Amino acid sequence: MIELYESQRAMRNMRRAAMQRGVVAILDVGSSKIACLVLRFDGSEPISDDGIGSLAGQSGFRVIGAATTRSRGVRFGEIRTMAETERAIRTAVQAAQKMAGIRVDHVIACFSGAEPRSYGLAGEVDVAASTVDEQDVARVLSACDMPDFGHGREVLHAQPVNFALDHRSGLSDPRGQIGNRLSCDMHMLTVEAQTIQNLAHCVKRCDLELAGVASSAYASGISALVEDEQELGSACIDMGGGATGVSIFIKKHMIYADSVRMGGDHVTSDISMGLQVPMATAERIKTFYGGVVATGMDDREMIETGGETGDWEHDRRTVSRTELIGIMRPRVEEILEEVRSRLDAADFDHLPARQIVLTGGASQIPGLDGLAAKILGQQVRLGRPLRVHGLPQAATGPGFASAVGLCLFAAHPQDEWWDFELPADRYPARSLRRAVKWFRENW
């Protein structure tokens, strides 16, 4: 358990250094767009470490720069072509810096792929004194049994979601309470290490320092779910270009996250193949005329496919909107069925609220909420990210849910509230091994 905190501490120190300087950049590396927001922490309200709740740090920062660019070299939320992604990140960061009028050195990034897997851990210890203090919390966190999550995977998020003291459960913060036996339930999210390493390497090649990483499914949930939904048990479905993120929240903590390797780009490629038009034309047709529910009017609404092949007949073709919907609906249904299977695996039906919130760029397809209600359950709504200070109007749509959520995460990361110094009795053997290894490598 100690390794889990040690691996993230270097980034946390970077984030604190950036916060002291007052400026940090947010980078949402997606399959269809790369968004960059520059935040200024004004210090008017000091960000405290004892707030419990994902909105505790919403004030205290302001967006002073924003830019987006078309994503290149990213597929299924993972970097495939390093040089192209590097150029796209440079473009977005430089445009945001220009708008902000300030240079940025540290970025916090989020991504949607990397095959996330969720684990539930449990730990239990005796309270040293009669009152629970930080040392007891640190001991119970380090006592959690680490699962064998396999080689080549890295812990991305680890948060205690519930504390129990003797027979009382459901405590969000047990510090200062009197009891004898402290136990803890923890949620841990692991991802493929290679994906994070590629992202870190790409950010480094852009002459920036990576001050933190987060799952975009988690970030979207923070920004698109209102406080009651986070409290009572809700799911956030972030439908991006190359991947669809699924996250479930209860008691203001994420308890499950997963990813479906399909998104809006797959719908676009279906249109491209079905109508035999270029991808750019298919994207335009999807945006202006797309939908998933056909009515009697749609037979008569004709869409010009356009084209520049030089073949007059081919370039002047028209298709009915019904035909377009017939191409789009099966793929959207397939994505929602995959999401349904992920929710079933997480026993989502046993939560109190069972609210489902759709967000992300691909959630803007007309009629999607009605179709999702049939496949996923009755309580479905379309979600937009929370408003944060200084956010431009162009960046308030569902496509920016993960970027806005990352702003809130940067201001007040839940992982860090519980990052106390771990007890010394768990250190010696491993510290000695590390010292020997360092000595052998350097002499």
Describe this structure as you would to a colleague.
Helix content is 38%, strand content 26%. With 443 residues, it is of the alpha+beta class. The protein has a domain of 77 residues: Dna Ligase, domain 1, CATH 3.30.1490.110. The two termini are 30 Å apart.
List the helices and strands and how they pair.
Blueprint: H1 2-21, E1 23-29, E2 33-41, E3 61-70, E4 74-75, E5 78-79, H2 82-100, E6 106-111, E7 117-126, H3 134-142, E8 153-165, E9 168-171, E10 181-192, H4 193-205, E11 209-215, H5 216-224, H6 227-232, E12 234-239, E13 244-250, E14 253-260, H7 264-275, H8 279-289, E15 302-304, H9 312-315, E16 318-320, H10 321-345, E17 355-359, H11 368-376, E18 380-382, H12 401-411, H13 414-417, H14 428-442
Parallel strand pairs: 1-6, 6-11, 12-17, 17-18
Antiparallel strand pairs: 1-2, 2-3, 4-5, 7-10, 8-9, 8-10, 12-13, 13-14, 15-16
Helix pairs in contact: 2-4, 5-12, 7-8, 7-10, 10-11
Please provide a brief summary of the model.
The chain is an alpha+beta fold and 443 residues long.
Number of helices: 14
Supply the CATH architecture of the domain at 117-193: 2-Layer Sandwich
Any idea what the radius of gyration is?
Answer: 23 Å
| Order of strands in the sheet with most strands | 3-2-1-6-11
Question: Ends: how far apart?
Answer: 30 Å
Provide the descriptors you would attach to this structure in a database record.
single chain; 443 residues; alpha+beta; Dna Ligase, domain 1; 5-stranded mixed sheet; 14 helices; 38% helix; globular; disordered C terminus; cell membrane
